[in-house]
Specification:
By secondary structure, the protein is mainly alpha-helical. The protein has a single domain, classed as Transmembrane di-heme cytochromes, Chain C (Fumarate Reductase Cytochrome B subunit, Up-down Bundle), CATH 1.20.950.20. The chain contains 9 helices and 2 strands, in the order βααααααααβα. Helix 1 runs antiparallel to helix 2, helix 2 packs across helix 5 and helix 5 packs antiparallel against helix 7. The longest helix has 29 residues.
């Protein structure tokens, strides 16, 4: 008779958890205040239009600082940026397909995930690919367009080079929509653990429980794949 035991892995260090929740707070605030700025005739969450702009700008600065903190931590302190966020050749050849099959089919059949996180390999191949695009492409572009909108007068030549204020506003809005599409997907996938809150707990206390039997099975299948 096979017994399934679980082990606890310290997956999310304190600096990462602090960054995660500061970033989450900032992005949600940006979304809500941005919605009022974009659709003031329909949405009024923060009083005046000016108050919404000031809150939006403040949240934008918070997110920019949070991003800088994240980049510094993983590049200079943990030194795991490439290891954690750049898909390996095996991820690209086999991992993306395996993880896609799991999310679309095997999860609903009660099968275990083909990826089990460790401190040195926290993200599955699809997560790595998504975070690579979000953190190194989308986030910088949203921040850059936001900085331009906050400094239209001193950066007027750059704004005109892009195509003018209306084009810049449209770009910023579309990039923000893409960011929130990822956010909703992120929240949904975070509920696909053994319980709906299983993947949320490591972001509160740092620890994740991993089924040792499933982990060994995954490693064996990976070796023979």
């Amino acid at each position: 008779m096979t017994t399934h035991s679980s082990k606890r892995v310290y997956l999310q260090p304190t600096p990462v958890r602090i960054w995660h929740w500061l970033n989450a707070l900032g992005i949600v605030t940006l979304g809500l205040s941005g919605a009022q700025i974009r659709f003031p005739e329909y949405i009024n969450l923060f009083g005046s239009y000016k108050a919404a702009i000031e809150l939006h700008n403040t949240a934008g600065i918070l997110v920019a600082l949070s991003f800088t903190f994240w980049f510094f931590y993983y590049t200079c302190i943990a030194r795991k940026m490439t290891q954690l966020y750049v898909p390996s050749s095996d991820d690209l050849r086999h991992g993306l397909l395996r993880q896609s099959v799991y999310y679309f089919f095997n999860y609903f059949r009660g099968k275990p995930s083909p990826h089990h996180p460790t401190p040195d390999n926290k993200f599955n191949p699809l997560q790595k690919s998504a975070y690579l695009a979000i953190m190194f492409v989308l986030m910088p572009l949203v921040s850059l367009s936001g900085i331009l909108l906050m400094n239209i007068a001193p950066l007027r030549e750059i704004v005109l080079l892009i195509g003018g204020l209306k084009i810049l506003v449209g770009i910023h809005f579309l990039l923000s929509c893409a960011m929130f599409a990822f956010l909703f997907t992120h929240l949904y996938l975070a509920t696909l653990g053994k319980t709906p809150l299983a993947y949320f707990k490591p972001m509160w206390n740092g620890w994740e429980e991993i089924d040792e039997h499933e982990s060994e099975t995954t490693l064996e299948s990976g070796h023979h794949g």
